Automatic annotation (TrEMBL), chains A, B, C, D:
<keyword id="KW-0560">Oxidoreductase</keyword>
<comment type="subunit">
    <text>Homotetramer.</text>
</comment>
<feature type="domain" description="Gfo/Idh/MocA-like oxidoreductase C-terminal">
    <location>
        <begin position="137"/>
        <end position="326"/>
    </location>
</feature>
<feature type="region of interest" description="Disordered">
    <location>
        <begin position="319"/>
        <end position="339"/>
    </location>
</feature>
<dbReference type="InterPro" id="IPR000683">
    <property type="entry name" value="Gfo/Idh/MocA-like_OxRdtase_N"/>
</dbReference>
<dbReference type="Pfam" id="PF01408">
    <property type="entry name" value="GFO_IDH_MocA"/>
</dbReference>
<protein>
    <recommendedName>
        <fullName>Inositol 2-dehydrogenase</fullName>
        <ecNumber>1.1.1.18</ecNumber>
    </recommendedName>
</protein>
<dbReference type="InterPro" id="IPR036291">
    <property type="entry name" value="NAD(P)-bd_dom_sf"/>
</dbReference>
<comment type="similarity">
    <text>Belongs to the Gfo/Idh/MocA family.</text>
</comment>
<dbReference type="GO" id="GO:0050112">
    <property type="term" value="F:inositol 2-dehydrogenase (NAD+) activity"/>
</dbReference>
<dbReference type="InterPro" id="IPR023794">
    <property type="entry name" value="MI/DCI_dehydrogenase"/>
</dbReference>
<dbReference type="InterPro" id="IPR004104">
    <property type="entry name" value="Gfo/Idh/MocA-like_OxRdtase_C"/>
</dbReference>
<dbReference type="InterPro" id="IPR050424">
    <property type="entry name" value="Gfo-Idh-MocA_inositol_DH"/>
</dbReference>
<comment type="function">
    <text>Involved in the oxidation of myo-inositol (MI) to 2-keto-myo-inositol (2KMI or 2-inosose).</text>
</comment>
<dbReference type="Pfam" id="PF02894">
    <property type="entry name" value="GFO_IDH_MocA_C"/>
</dbReference>
<keyword id="KW-0520">NAD</keyword>
<feature type="domain" description="Gfo/Idh/MocA-like oxidoreductase N-terminal">
    <location>
        <begin position="3"/>
        <end position="123"/>
    </location>
</feature>
C-alpha cells in the first residue's frame, strides 16, 4: 500500500519534504499540495504528479489524502493540526506544534477527546543515528544514572531576522525535545545566562547564550547556544552518569594531514547534519501510517512540553536571567500520564 | 514511474535486496522473483506481491520486468547477465560479475555488440559516504598526486568453508574495485605475502595475508586482509600523496568513558558497515533505470578487471608469493578505451 | 651553581618534591629538611644527604638554604612564607598560599614592602604542556576573543575526609588559577549549582557540583567538578571564542582495538596526569632562583585571588546557590596593578 | 654522586646533549669536551665549566671522566667506543654504533672480552612514552601474538645531501631498532619496493620507499619511509595481533575548530617529537652509570643488528628490490645468546 500524503505549505522545508516523500522514502506519494501562494502550490503539484488544492481544509478533507504533513508558517500550524484530528487523519507537523502553549494544549485535548494519537511533531533528532546510539548507551546502563548533560548547539551564522528569543524557540528547542527523550525525564526549570556577546553579529542579538535546565530527577543540563560561531554547524552532547559518560559522535569525516595540520571538515549546514535523520523520521512515520497504528515519534504532548519549556527559557532571558519554573499541566493518560 | 524489478536468486543477499527495493528505495517495485528453490521463490513472491517465475529466462523475458537483479549463485551470474543484455534490459549483478575472466569478457563483448551499457556490478563501496568523501579529497587535489595506499580489510571471523583464495576473490575484491575507482588508475601487478598465520582459525587457511598491488601510474598499495581478526569488522584506507594524506573515516560511534577506558564500539558485521552504501547503490541504480540512461556504477569492464586482478592475486599466493603481472585485454571504447 | 633548597614538610607531597629536586631537576640540591615529625625529617635528610633542622625558622635562616619549599600542612603555610619573605629568600609554597584571604593578603603586603617578588604558589597546571599549547592558541588569536569556557575536573574517587567545600578549595582551585592565567582575565563572580548527587559516595557529600564563573570581560565559565566519577582522572577544558574553539588535549594514549571496542586507557591518578607539569614547574623555579630574578610562576597575588574566588564559590554553595560577587582588594603595582 | 661525562663531538647533536646533561638531567655534569674543531671544543667547555681536551683518547683517559658520550662524525664512532671499552668506561654512542657491520662486531667482541656491557647505542625511541605504552600493551597480551606491523616514518623534507640509501641507514634504522625491541623478535629478511617518486624533491632520490621486513617468528612489517612528505614529521606504528591491534599515539595536541575545520597541529621536527625521549634516555643512562651497573638501553649487539639489517635493506634497494636475507652472526652469551 502506498501512503498518500497531502502537504500544507510548499516553502523551503515543504519542498524538501516533498522531495523526500517522492524520491527517498518508499511507500509514500504526495497526492495533494496546498500553499498560501497558490501558484507555488500549482507548480509543485504538477512537478510531482499531485493535485493543488485551495486550502488546508480542502486538502485534509480530500479522499486521496491518507495523512497530512504541515509545513506551513508556524502560526497556522495549530489550526491545520486541529482540523486533521477532527478528520481523524494522521498528521506530521513541523515544529513548532503551535506558537503558544495554549494552542498546543488545545491540540493535546482534541487528541485526547478523539481517543488515540494522530499527531507527530517534527523533532528529527530522535531519528539521528548518533542520538539513537547515545540513547541505547543510556538505556543500557553503561554509564549509570545520568546526573549532568553538557551540550552545545552552534550555527555558523544566522539571518538578520533572528532575534534573541529565537535562541530558545528555534534553536534550543531541538535539544529540549531530544534531552527529554534521551533522559526519559522532564525539564522543570530553565535559566539563561549571557556571556559577553560576539562582535561578529548585529548588536541587539544576545549571542551566545548559556541555558541551564533542571529535570524532575535533578539532572542538570547546560547548553551553549551560539548561532554565529563562524566555524560551522556543530552539535555536541555529553551525558555524565554515575559511572561514566557518553558523548554524541561527530559526523564521520575523512581525516586529512596536509600543510602542518591534521584535521577534517566541519559541516556548515544543519541539512547536511540531519539529512539522514529526516529521511528516517519520514520513513518511520510513513510506516506507522501504513500500519494503521499510532505514530511512534514525538507526540502532541512533546510539542506542548517543548513550547512550555522554551517559554520559560525566554522568560528567564528577558527578566533578569533568573531560574524560571516550568509550569506544565498534568500529563493526560493518552500520553503516559496517570489514568 | 515505478521501476519494476525482477530478482533472480532469493537467498540471503537476494532477500536483503528485495527488502531494500520494497521498503527503502522509492520508485521501485519487485514484480518477479525466481530461485533455484521454487518454494522459496513462491513464498518470497507472495510476501512482496510479486510473481514467482520458473527460471531466469522467463523472468528476464517478462513484460512486467523493467530491470533485472542477479543475486543467484556466482557460477550462474554470467548466463543471466548475458540473457539480460540479449533482452536489452538493465541488469544489476552482485559480485562477481562472473567466476572466470573469460566469462566476464564475454559479457563485456556482448554489451559492446549491443552498443550501450546495460550492466552494473554490485561493488557497493563506491556508494559509501566515507569513500565518496575520500574520492572528493583526492580529486580536489588536497593531497597531491597519490603515491601509496595503505589498506586493511578485517572480519571478526569467517565460516569453515572459507579458503585461502577467497581472501582475494571474496574479500580483497572490494578494495580492488574501490581503489581502481578512487585512484582513476589501473592495477598492473599483484603479490601476496603471508605473515605467521593466526592460531584462531582452522589450519589450512592462510590468514592474514598481505597483498601488494602496483598501478599503471606507479602507486603502491598494501592491503592487509585478516578475516579472523576477532575484534570486529574494520575497513581502513589511507591514501598518501605528494603533499598529504587522507584517511577513510571510521563509522561515527558514541564515545564512552567508563571503568578506566575511553572508547567506542567497533562494528561486527559488514551489513552494518555498508548498509547505507547498499541503499544508495540501489537508489542510484533505480534512478538511472528510470531515467533511461546507462548505469552510473561499476561497469562490466570493472567486473572483468576485478576478476583478472583477483586471479593474479590468487596466482601469486599459490605460486611462491612472487609478483604476478595482471594481463588485461585492451579496454573497449564503450568503457573508456581508445575509439 | 647548584640551588640549595630547604624543605618544610616531608609528607607525601614533600617527599615527591624532594625526589624531584634530587633525581629529576638538574642544578638543585635539597640541603635541609624539617617536619613536624622530627623522625621523619631525620630519615629523609639522611636519605638525600641533607640536614634535618628543628623547625621552619631554623631552616629558613640556614646559610646553606638558598630557597625554601613549603609543603607542610596548609594552615602553617602563611607563617613560613612570611618568614621566608622576611629573610629575603625565594619561596615556593604548595597551594594554598594560606587558608584565609586575610593571610594571603598579609603575604602580598609583606612582599610589596620587601619590594620585589619572592613567592611562587604551586599551581602546576600552568606548566602542563597541553595548557601551554592552549594558551599559545588563545594568545595567537586563532579563535578570536574568548567568550566561554567549558571545563570538567573529574576524579575517580576521594577519601572519606573530603567534604563539599573542598570541591572548590582543593579541586576547582586548579581551574580557577589556570583559567585566570589562560584568559588573562579576572573572575568577578562565582556560583554553584548541584545536580542530583551520585549514589556512589557518602551521603553528606554534594558531588558532582557545577560551578559557574563570570570574568571581568564577561567570559562565562562552567566547570563540572565530579570527584567520584568512578571511571578515571579526567581534565577537560574547552575555550570558545568569537571565531572558533580550542580544546585541551587528552593525554596521548595507545589506541587499542580488541573485543568489539576501539579505545584507550584513561589515567587514574592526578600524579600521572600532571607529573611532567610538576617537573617543569620545579625546573623553571630553580632556574629563576639560579638566575637571581623574580619567580616566573603563579604569584602571591594569584594565591590571594584563588583563595578569594574559592571563598566566594563555597559561600554560594552554602547559601542558596546564588551568584556571589568576588570581593578582591585593589591589585598592587608589584603585581601588575596601577602604580 | 654526580656522574662526570666527557663528550666527544660538539656538533649540533653534541651541543643538544651537553645542554641536556647540564640543564635537564639531575646528577650529571659535563667535565670534558673534545671536537675535531678545537675552537668549538674550547668555547663549549668554557660555557659549561668543563675542560677542552685535544682528542678522544685524552678525554677517555681523563680522571674526571666517569662516562663517555660519543656524538662525533659516524665513521669515528667505532674507534672511540673501542677505546672506551679498553678503558673500562661506560659509553653512550649516538647511532650508528659504527658504519660497518664489521666494526660493530669488533665492538661486540671487545665488550665480550671485557666481560660486561659498557656500551649503549643512542636509539632513543625505546624511551618514548608512546612506544613504552605500546610495549606494555604487547607484553601484557592484550592483542595476542603479534602477526603484522604497519609503520610510517615521514619527514617534511630532507637536505640535498640525503641519498636513497639513507632512507634505511638514517631513517628506517629507528624503526628497525624499536621494532626488534617491541616484538622481542629478530628481523631475518628485508626488501624495498619503490612507489612512484614524489616530484617535490631532487630527481635522483628514491622517495618514498616501502620496506618489508620479516621476523624470525614470521611477523611481517611494512614501513613507509617518506622523507619529503611536506606536511610534517609523523611517526606511525600499528601492531596487529591475533586478537586485536594497538597503535602508537599521536602526540597530544590542542584540538581546534575554526573556519570549517576541526584539527590540530602536526609536529614539524623530530626534536620536538622525541625531545622527551632523549631526556629519559639520558636520565636512565646516567642512573645506570651512577648505580655502577650495566646500561639498560640498546646494546652493542642491537647496534650491530641494526647495521646488518639496514645493510640488507640497502642491498635490496640497489639490486632489484628482491627480499634479502639478513645474515647475522650468532648472538653472544653476554647479549642473551646461548651460553
Amino acid at each position: 500500500m502506498t501512503v498518500r500524503v497531502g502537504v500544507i505549505g510548499a516553502g523551503m522545508i515543504g519542498q524538501d519534504h516533498i522531495r523526500r516523500l517522492t524520491d527517498v522514502v518508499a511507500g509514500a506519494q504526495v497526492t495533494a499540495v496546498t500553499d498560501i501562494d497558490s501558484g507555488r502550490a500549482a507548480e509543485t503539484a504538477v512537478r510531482v504528479g499531485a493535485r493543488a488544492l485551495p486550502d488546508g481544509p480542502a486538502l485534509i478533507a480530500a479522499d486521496d489524502v491518507d495523512a497530512v504533513l504541515v509545513t506551513s508558517w508556524g502560526p497556522t500550524h495549530a489550526e491545520h493540526v486541529l482540523n486533521a484530528i477532527a478528520a481523524g487523519k494522521p498528521v506530521l507537523c513541523e515544529k513548532p506544534l503551535a506558537t503558544t502553549a495554549e494552542d498546543c494544549l488545545r491540540i493535546v485535548d482534541a487528541e485526547c477527546s478523539y481517543g488515540r494519537r494522530l499527531v507527530q511533531v517534527g523533532f528529527m533528532r530522535r531519528y539521528d543515528a548518533g542520538y539513537r546510539q547515545l540513547k541505547g548507551v543510556l538505556d543500557g546502563g553503561t554509564i549509570g544514572t545520568p546526573l549532568m548533560v553538557h551540550c552545545a548547539h552552534r550555527n555558523p551564522t544566522v539571518p538578520d531576522a533572528y532575534h534573541s528569543a529565537m535562541a530558545a524557540q528555534d534553536t534550543a528547542v531541538h535539544e529540549i525535545d531530544v534531552l527529554r527523550w534521551l533522559l526519559g525525564d522532564e525539564i522543570v526549570s530553565a535559566q539563561v545566562i549571557t556571556p559577553r556577546a560576539t562582535s561578529r553579529r548585529f548588536e541587539h542579538l544576545k549571542d551566545p547564550q548559556i541555558m541551564l535546565f533542571e529535570t524532575a530527577q535533578g539532572v542538570r543540563i547546560d547548553l551553549e547556544v551560539f548561532v554565529n560561531c563562524q566555524y560551522g554547524y556543530d552539535i555536541q552532547c555529553e551525558t555524565v552518569g554515575e559511572t561514566g559518560l557518553a558523548r554524541l559522535p561527530d559526523p564521520a569525516a575523512v581525516g586529512i594531514r596536509t600543510a602542518g595540520q591534521h584535521g577534517s571538515a566541519v559541516l556548515q549546514d544543519w541539512k547536511d547534519r540531519f539529512g539522514d535523520a529526516f529521511d528516517t523520521e519520514f520513513r518511520e512515520w510513513i510506516a506507522s501510517v501504513e500500519a494503521g497504528g499510532e505514530p511512534t515519534g514525538p507526540s502532541a504532548w512533546d510539542g506542548y512540553a517543548a513550547t512550555v519549556i522554551t517559554d520559560a527559557t525566554v522568560r528567564s532571558l528577558e527578566s533578569g536571567q533568573q531560574p524560571v519554573t516550568v509550569d506544565m499541566k498534568p500529563r493526560p493518560a493518552l500520553h503516559g500520564g496517570p489514568a
